[in-house]
Amino acid sequence: MSxxxxxxxxxxxxxxYIYEELRKQILTLKLKPGVPLDEVSxxxxxxxxxxxxxxALARLISEGLxxxxxxxxxxxxxxxxxxxxxxxSALDLIxxxxxxxxxxxxxxxxxxKIRAADVAYLDAVRSGDFQAMSEMNKSFHMAIAEAGRNPYxxxxxxxxxxxxxxxxxxxxxxxxxxxxxxxxxGRDHDEIxxxxxxxxxxxxEQTAHEHTMxxxxxxxxxxxxxxxxxxxxx
Length: 234
Description:
Layout: H1 3-27, H2 39-46, H3 50-62, E1 66-68, E2 74-76, H4 84-105, H5 108-127, H6 130-148, H7 151-178, H8 183-186, H9 190-197, H10 201-225, H11 227-231
Antiparallel strand pairs: 1-2
Helix pairs in contact: 1-3, 2-3, 4-6, 4-7, 4-9, 4-10, 5-6, 6-7, 9-10
């Protein structure tokens, strides 16, 4: 995208455009973990004042994608590979909880939203659009969390899913090639949906746990195949 194209669009939409553009670059790893983000440089890049840039960065900070260091340096939140087990542990606990609550509390309308989100995810899988896949995967799991009706879980889960989107994008290509088909990838959510539809809380929690463990196995397999590349994202 040329600067001439960016500036008119950014001026029309201000902080929202900057937020969406930076978020896209962070999630697709165009902006690598640990890269500094300078308000003055970003304002010049987007042809705007520092105020909308500051607003966009504040929103990204709230999502855990951008970090401010004690010396006030702003940077793309680093992800240390050695922290992956801690991330998975947190994800597993919260994913089991929200999925269990969804099975207990969901309405027919909630179930319809969950199914619709899964259809959108399947469409993204078929198209091979990794960014859309990570976005639709997040939307699917957030539909489950919202069906559980616990705002504390919803808020924390959204942050965890946001942090995990970079990891998903990083290894989607490996998953598709390793499993030799996108078909299995697209069916990852079936058992979770069935358990929620049946209002089987125990089964919902178990399938959520299995889903997290599948993510863990896939990512670790990716690391084994791409160790040098993985280390570079710290």
